[in-house]
Amino acid sequence: MRDTNDELAVQVAELSRSFGSFVAVDRVSFSVARGEIFGFLGANGAGKTTTIRMLCGLLVPSSGSGTVAGFDVMRDYERIKHRIGYMSQKFSLYDDLTVRENLEFYGGMYGLNSRRIGERIAELFESVGLREHADKLAGDLPLGWKQRMSLTAALIHDPDIIFLDEPTSGVDPVSRRSFWLLIYELADRGKTVFVSTHYMDEAEYCNRLSIMKLGRIVELARPADLKSKYGVPTMQEVFLQAVSGDE
Amino acid sequence: MTAQTQLPIAVRELHKRFGETTAVDNVSFEVEPAQIFGLIGPDGGGKTTIIRTIVSLISCDSGEVFFQGRSVAREPGYVRSNVGYMPQRFSLYQDLTVAENLTFFGDLFGVPKEKLTRRIEQLYEFSALGPFRTRRAGALSGGMKQKLALSCMLVHAPEVIVLDEPTFGVDPVSRNDFWKILKTLAREGTTILVSTAYMDEALQCDRVALVYRGRLLAEDRPENLKLQYGEPLYLAATDAPHLAYNAIHPSGLCRECNLFGDGVHFTLAEPATAEQVAQRCADSGVPLSGTHRIEPALEDLFLKLMKE
Amino acid sequence: MNRTFVSIFKKELIHIFRDVQSLFMVLSMPLLMLLLYGYAITLDMKGIDIAIIDQSHTPESRQLVDRIASTDFFHIAARDVPVDIIGDLFKTRTARCALVIPEDFARTLSSGRETRVQLIVDASDPNAANFVTNYVGQVISRQNASGNPGSHALFSVSPRVFYNPDMRSADFFVPGLIALILILISTLLTSIAIVREKETGTMEQLLVSPIRPLQLILGKVLPYTMLGFIDGVLILVVGSIWFNVPIEGSLLLVLAMMMIYVVTGISLGILVSTLAKTQAVAMLVAVMLTILPSMMMSGFIFPIASMPRVFQYVSTIIPATYFLQIIRGIVLKGNTIANLYQQAAILLGMDVLLIALAVRSFRVRLE
Asked: pLDDT confidence of C167, banded at 50, 70, 90?
């Protein structure tokens, strides 16, 4: 019988974080399986960003418990950081470096030695399909390719968990879809994917979603289930109903 | 052309290149009074270039732009003094308070003092920013900053307003509020030209132009646009959309085949049938819950037109 | 349309006062530099170790020795040692120089013949040696002036002594500092103020309004003109009260000239801002265009006449060159406009040229 903990990438219970007297995250509990694509939704100030930072090992919780990638969120947050790949909104790349140089830089940042970096770049070019652009300047790439590049950089150290922050904002619908195909493939191979977004159509691609309001999780379910629960056809409308009401 | 003088904005055969790249390629459209006209499309498609040309910040290589009947190229001062403009990634003066920002823009446009005071009060009500009037703009939340930027633009009561991606990066609730405000303005007679990358916002406009790679792919009322699709669209519903996509896409059974959160949206390549598609999925082990026809949405249309 | 201008002006004032850090720097930097130059980096030397060898032992020779002892310049490190150990004194750095008063000093003095004293200087530091020679020369001139006819000064008197009897660097530096600070502040702040609008994106918003370039420029520039002016006055006041720098000429003239000079700095700042895309670049260019040339090539420290020909040409296009002449002239020499109209006219000419260029190159479109 397999230890179920092996299958869970994230398991948190009663996780809280306060800043002074302000409770940013209020006793949040959930678990995310390996290979799951998990979405974080919420208005600004709802506690979304704070929760994510705790999961990425960037912030220590005030109370509660949990593990991310097998490491304790309270004690081992430093080591969590190394197991997470982060793709930022608007793809922070160095415009005047080539694709290859960008990747080499990020590889170095994550502490990989040059041989390993070379291997990873070759592997990633294979799976992501960037090879023909390898020696182009990042600044010259069209937006869809910048997006791929940014994802590749986040994957360079072969993390177990990737965190995507509004990964497809402003990207054309076709590129957006090929990007999501990539993400699905990564998930199939056992990588866990967190997505934080205001784009409700990105939310639709997630396996499960959490909607936060005033520091608490008010909804945690699959997109299809949420839509039938609220009786509406789009996530946009689910969100509006879930989050509005008592202000 | 007498119609010109009536129209708040008229763009005719606009062309603009930046070096080698064609940013705007033969774009023409008209905005009617009290209408909300949306330029919808991804980044880099030319929306911002079109808008900047309309407000005279950029000159065009060929074509003409008219603002309330006056040529923008020949009389840039007119459009600049009369339009309400909210640029992309709008920025306010972070170290000035809400009140100071509003007063500044009022003075900038020469709004008479008395009118200005009254109008600012109205804007406070309208934007719910009244209680924050002494707060520095930098300390406001994203949604409030957006409302402030809108108010600053409205302070000189322009008849025509032009907004470039005003809801960028803002959460859906605030976005919703913002569009409610825009609709109110339109009802009260303001003409609005707005650009956005959010496809769902297109449905809030009276008229929509899909912009991609500098060209207008389509232009009509949103409900009419969906009718433009021209052929039946099906959904292969599944929890594993990518598996369905990988099964269907190379099969040759479909013309359009696009990944969506709820499955794959596809159109049939004659003489294939939806059942065949379902069968193909089953053969590949894809957990399909069924195939059925669906109404094309704007995104489906955009995807189809993009590829042409 | 005036309201447009006033709105920009008011807004800029608010920005200035709310940016406490920059404001503090603008007001305190001049004072800091003043203290620095006034006290720490003094070109005066004090307490130079001197060995006095009085072979005459007469009241006249003792008078000379007392004069030397009573100045701050010298510290008597050795008295009446044998002449042949002077070399050792220098080697061990016990003394930098030695004054040997010959045995027949008093006799030759009273006989009205040319009297000599011997000054031996350790010239391994030529700069210091220069000072030593000058100071000793001064002391001796005073000795001469106090009614000993017939004695000659051994050294020529430098013209500076005429106007700066104590040869105090403060008198030299304070006016110079005003020139430096004024142009730095006015160019730097102006260029940053305008580029900031570009960088934050508010410029795009401002352009789509009834505003005209001149209104925008003037509205932004006026607050900094005032600030620069206040700085100049601050330095002058502190300089004269604290460092006792006298102001020989008309104060009104000083202020008027400062205005012209500040406008030069500001026009330069506007020009820089039309070319720079980021505040960082604007800052760098502003500093390079003002501090370096104004410090090195305008006559601030090093006389223009001592520079290579190329730099002398360069100095003619540096505003600080002219302003230095103006302000030193008024403050130290009591010059009037009659003496300085040429320099003033050149500065005014620069103002007009720079403003015209700035307004021309100010872009009203985004491309």
From this structure: very low
Q: Which two tokens stand for residue B70?
A: 């006056």
B234 at interface of A, judged by CB pairs closer than 8 A: no
Residue C45 CA, chain-centre distance (Å), reads 18
- Is the separation of the CB atoms in B46 and B213 below 8 Å? yes
CB contact residues (below 8 A), chain B span 237-266, against chain A? 239-242, 245, 258-262
In percent, how much of chain C has pLDDT > 70?
87
Per the omega criterion (within 30 degrees of 0), is the bond before C303 cis?
Answer: no
Contact A198 B172 (CB under 8 A): yes
Task: Flag if A44 and B306 touch (Cβ within 8 Å).
Answer: no
Q: What is the pLDDT of residues B188-230, one digit of tens each?
A: 999 999 999 888 899 899 999 999 999 999 999 998 998 889 8
Residue A183's pLDDT is 92
Return the closest-CA partner of residue C330 out of C255, C262, C248.
C248
pLDDT tens-digit readout, B239-272:
889 999 999 999 889 999 999 988 999 999 888 8
- Contacting residues for C196 by C-beta, under 8 A, at least 6 apart: C279
Give CA–CA dist C144/C11, Å, rounded. Answer: 64
C-alpha C91: how far from chain center? 35
Task: Identify all chain B residues contacting C11, using CB atoms and an 8 Å cutoff.
Answer: 93, 96, 100, 104
Contact B52 C209 (CB under 8 A): no
Whether residue B173 lies within 8 A of chain A, CB to CB, comes out as yes
Q: Any residues with CB less than 8 A from the CB of A225 and at least 6 apart, and which?
A: none
pLDDT band for position A16 (cuts 50, 70, 90): very high
Tens digits of residue pLDDT in A149-178: 889 889 999 998 999 988 888 888 888 898
Label residue B76 by pLDDT band (50, 70, 90): very high
Q: Which residues of chain B lie closer than 8 angstroms to C1, CB-CB? A: 110
- Angle (nearest 5°) at CA B216 between B214 and B220: 155
A109 touches chain B (CB under 8 A): no
What values do phi and psi take at B193, rounded to 5? Answer: -110, 120
Helices A235-243 and A223-230: crossing angle, nearest 10°?
A: 60
Task: Summarize pLDDT for B45-68 with one digit per residue, the tens.
Answer: 899 999 999 999 999 999 999 999
DSSP state of C84: G
Q: Do B57 and C204 touch (CB under 8 A)?
A: yes
Q: Does B57 touch chain C (CB under 8 A)?
A: yes
Among B48, B86, B107, B108, most C C-beta atoms within 10 A, so best to mutate, is B108
Residues of chain A with Cβ-Cβ distance to B44 below 8 Å are 142-143, 170
DSSP A5: G
Instruction: Please state the ipTM of this predicted complex.
Output: 0.83
Instruction: Report the DSSP pairing between strands B207-212 and B191-196.
Output: unpaired
| 3 state DSSP class of A171 | coil
Q: Which residues contact A185 (CB under 8 A, 6 or more apart)?
A: A127, B242
pTM across the whole model: 0.79
| Cβ pair C97, C121 in contact under 8 A | yes
